[in-house]
Amino acid sequence: MRTRIKICCISSRAEAEAAVAAGADALGLVSAMPSGPGVIAEALIAEIAATVPPAVGTFLLTSETEAGAIVAQQRRCGVNTVQLCDALATAAYPALKEAMPGVRLVQVIHVRGEESVAEAARIATTVDGLLLDSGDPTRAVKELGGTGRVHDWALSRRIVAASPCPVFLAGGLRAENVAEAIRRVRPYGVDLCTGVRTDGALDPARLAAFMAAVAAADTPSRLPSQAKRPY
DSSP of the chain, one letter per residue? Predict the structure, then answer.
């Protein structure tokens, strides 16, 4: 079982091409957010998404919470996956599924305590995947990702073990700690932004080091706990 890799905060076609060439399975394209790095215009998201090979996931990171706004944004951007960075009303998920057939939904769970485990269990049956991050939506200016912080991996492991859908792990990952993260959490995939960047730009050396660290962690002894649908 190979750990999938999502490179987030892609800011140009050149960065997208570099990440795909390095072996990325998915790219994160960040639309308007209340805080955090990597935000680009929707026109650029659409331009990048149109050039990415079909087998590679193009994730639109959205802070929208209303189904109609999310559907409209996905149609403008032309991505194959929508990453929901904030909490949605329960009724929004079936509405999104109906309006966007064939588009995958990945819900971000900001892992902050036991309540996050319960939240993940409630949502996992309604989406195509979960992504565990280290934001804090309760702050005056919401943190919906890109913090560079590591959260409690023990909580993440519990979410992965119980989830019926694939789970990505994010939050402070880098070449130096991703092997331990994979060993302890056993996610379907890993996701990062700042860990492969220098001065905000995608760093080829850091990207290569991260890819190598993930490949080294994927040994035959790894348990296939997240052998679910690929992205």
Answer: -PPEEEE----SHHHHHHHHHHT-SEEEEE---SS-S-B--HHHHHHHHHHS-TTSEEEEEE---SHHHHHHHHHHHT-SEEEE-S---TTHHHHHHHHSTT-EEEEEEE--SHHHHHHHHHHGGGSSEEEEE--BTTSSS-B-S-------HHHHHHHHHH-SS-EEE-SS--TTTHHHHHHHH--SEEEESGGGEETTEE-HHHHHHHHHHHHHH--TTS--TT-----
Query: What is the pLDDT averaged over residues 135-153?
Result: 92
Instruction: Please state which architecture CATH assigns to domain 4-217.
Output: Alpha-Beta Barrel (3.20)
CA distance linking residue 213 with residue 117, whole number of Å: 28
pLDDT in tens, 46-104: 999 999 999 999 999 999 999 999 999 999 999 999 999 999 999 999 999 999 999 99
Sorted by where each begins, the domain ranges of the chain are 4-217
Please tell me the predicted confidence (pLDDT) of residue 231: 58
Residue 93: partners with Cβ closer than 8 Å, 6 or more residues away: 105, 123, 126, 127
Query: Which residue, 87, 82, 81, 80, is CA-closest to 65?
Result: 87
- Phi/psi at 56 (nearest 5 deg)? -95, 130
Give the C-alpha separation, 13 to 115, whole Å.
38
Question: For residues 69, 74, 77 and 78, what is the CA-based torsion angle, rounded to 10 degrees?
Answer: -160
The total of other beta-carbon atoms located within 10 Å of residue 161's CB is: 12
